[in-house]
User: Which sequence fits this backbone?
């Protein structure tokens, strides 16, 4: 049997009891970085030899793993952090197992994608995970253009060394008011979540409030497509207009909701 085992994304205490049981009963253990996995094995007090399985040897090692499974061995693939095959090696092996009708299963566990979605404070009813932000600026622009009119939350992995340039490019394509969250070192001792407009995030980076080190996930708000249909009932309009001018009320509502100020103003004066 083949097992894909999710591992902690920072806090080793997040390893599941089921994962520990499967690791202990495995005949062969594979990991992207055997040094990281050795730390986990030491933490759960299991002594096993761990073999390398990464993007540079996946084609070579996959037939070896398939052969072990056909010989009725239990094989486990452990991710460095989070869920295997999600921005990690594993897809080619899964594809080959599916092709050869070989059974495999996932031992679920921590996920930086799901954790970031929840911690971001942005809508979680619909979101898309894109993996790592493209390294080249031109490719980044193409990527950000593709989500410009998408109302779903977008989630990316990014290197801390590239974060400032990436946010600068994001502002160029998506605008400075698009809401963004930077989820840093999740589940670890120095976990931090930074929320604000893209411009505010960039300013925090420049002021070194966001230190450019550690593991980071960028969560980007989807576009607000309902701006042209913004409607307030007459009772609410009158309450606003008792205290504020239509212009000031529109400005305030726009600031809070992210809706288009001009559309709000038009709706306010239609009583």
Assistant:
């Amino acid at each position: 049997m083949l097992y894909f085992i999710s591992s902690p994304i920072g806090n080793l205490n997040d390893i599941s009891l089921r994962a520990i049981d499967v690791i202990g009963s495995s005949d062969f253990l594979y990991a992207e970085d055997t040094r990281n996995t050795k730390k986990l094995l030491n933490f759960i007090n299991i002594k096993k030899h761990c073999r390398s399985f990464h993007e540079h040897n996946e084609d070579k090692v996959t037939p070896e793993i398939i052969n072990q499974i056909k010989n009725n061995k239990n094989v486990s693939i452990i991710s460095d952090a989070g869920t295997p095959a999600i921005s990690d090696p594993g897809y080619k092996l899964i594809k080959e197992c599916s092709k050869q009708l070989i059974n495999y299963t996932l031992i679920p566990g921590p996920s930086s994608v799901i954790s970031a979605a929840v911690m971001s404070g942005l809508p979680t009813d619909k979101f898309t995970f894109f993996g790592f932000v493209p390294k080249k600026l031109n490719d980044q622009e193409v990527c950000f253009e593709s989500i410009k009119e998408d109302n779903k939350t977008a989630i990316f992995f990014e290197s801390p060394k590239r974060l400032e340039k990436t946010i600068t490019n994001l502002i160029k394509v998506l605008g400075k008011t698009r809401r963004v969250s930077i989820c840093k070192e999740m589940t670890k001792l120095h976990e931090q979540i930074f929320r604000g407009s893209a411009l505010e995030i960039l300013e925090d980076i420049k002021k070194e409030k966001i230190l450019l080190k550690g593991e980071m996930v960028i969560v980007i708000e989807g576009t607000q497509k309902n701006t042209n249909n913004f409607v307030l009932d007459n009772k609410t309009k009158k309450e606003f207009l008792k205290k504020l001018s239509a212009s000031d009320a529109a400005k305030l509502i726009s600031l809070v909701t992210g809706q288009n100020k001009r559309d709000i103003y038009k709706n306010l004066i239609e009583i």
